[in-house]
Write the structure tokens for this entry.
Amino acid sequence: MNAIEQGRALRRLRLLKGIKQSHLAELLGVDQASISRWERGSAPLGQERWLAALDLLAVSPTPAEDAALKRLVASSGAKVHLICDRSHRLLAASLPRQAEWHADLTELLGRSLLRYASDDILAAEEGLAARGWHEGCLSSLTLETGANHDPVLPIEPSLVLWERVTLADGRAGRLVTTIG
């Protein structure tokens, strides 16, 4: 992910969390001007700070919410996983999906998967607002993903279906299913 894409994602996540640049700067141990430069893409964020920011800005799911939906995803025979649509935190994954990943599910649950996104996924993510995805105007989207070449959570080129679902607390979730 280049500095501009990373900056856009940082700004989006910060605004979704409802915190000011100055507060994020305090949490990350930098000045507000650094946050501003990162969000504009005029300065690189760096991998360590990027991962720290993702962890700070993602919303933690509660264990009891949407237990039935999570159980259905986990027991599915398809390559599918469920994430929080806004924070990209992993909520559940099927065994066939877990078999693709080189990390234990417990290490990934509750963590943002955005760090593993391929360029194709990031580009599709950027276009969701223009399509009305976040307002519920679009309930599903099929896209082709390229490889991300990540050793922990590899993504192979494939056709995937994103489906928007409403979680029990009113937040949007996203079912991600490999269909080809």
Observations:
- The helical segments are 3-17, 21-28, 32-40, 47-57, 67-75, 95-100, 105-108, 119-131.
- The longest helix spans residues 3-17.
- The chain has a mean pLDDT of 88.
